[in-house]
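hey can u run this one w/ asparagine bound, need the structure tokens asap thx
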Amino acid sequence: MHGLEIERFSTDNHLSLIFRIQTEALKSIHDFLHEMDLVQLMPVILSPITDPLTHPVHDVRISYLGQELQLTKSMIFHKQIAIATLGVKGIYIMSPNVRFELGALEESEKHLLEFTQLDIELQGATAPEFMLLMENLIIHVFSQVKESCEKELDVLDVDLCIPSKPFNVYNSWNLREKYGSDFGYKISMREKDPFWITDFEREFYDKEDPHRRGHYINYDLYFPEGFGEVLSGGERDYEYKILLRKIQERNQDPTHFEHYLEYAKQGLLVPSAGGGLGIERMIRFLTKKKLIKDITLFPKVPGTRIVL
Ligand code: ASN
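ok here u go:
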């Protein structure tokens, strides 16, 4: 048998430095959330339901005992059920997500078919409360990395700025009017620090503003210098009638969300706010690497063959 042509990592690449930075960032996330008294849950990988998302992806379905299971795209529904069931202040999960992105994404700098998001949900929280927690988290993680990884950042030629609170907040409707549909990238190129964009028309679980139909109490966190979106989240709708109406408005099948909707019908879901922070996207920013595959050991880049 002929040996395969193996593309070895060159020894002078930056991966070991990047993973030292990642290790420090992950430790500081856990330290911070532990200090905030949040409870860590294990990830869910397989479930009959997962996030329907707003952009098209190819569904990965697996049949088991005649039942159709999907790989997790996000743990949103499990988060809502967990926060109501456990009765704790907040939860977090280092959640592996699989999203088979469609479209011409070969050139994608920030997409991976398989990635990890830090998924958080806070019971009874409002959008500003969640946003403040995330600002504190980002400042803590950046400060720890800057202090503990001085040598690594130096070799990577990264001058890491520690942002100050409060982060700028922009409304997506105003930005779209000013910059057109590519507003996220354009404003990310212009900004110097992380910032928020609010009010996106999105999945049925994000809370619709009860006073302004079509507007949402949700937010994305963006990194500057063109790095773009790293977190999305929102306050949640949790009442049965509202969830059902929004599922129907989106032409989705309510029977698909049967068990989740049953929780809502029995009044078992509670108000909450949360979001998910892309770990690889954050590491990409901390190490100022243009391509997300360059901070990943076994990258799965949409549109390319998977090797390992
Ligand atoms: N995890 C996100 C949230 O909590 C959802 C997502 O990743 N699509 O809102």
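The first strand starts at residue 39 and ends at 40. anyway lmk if its weird
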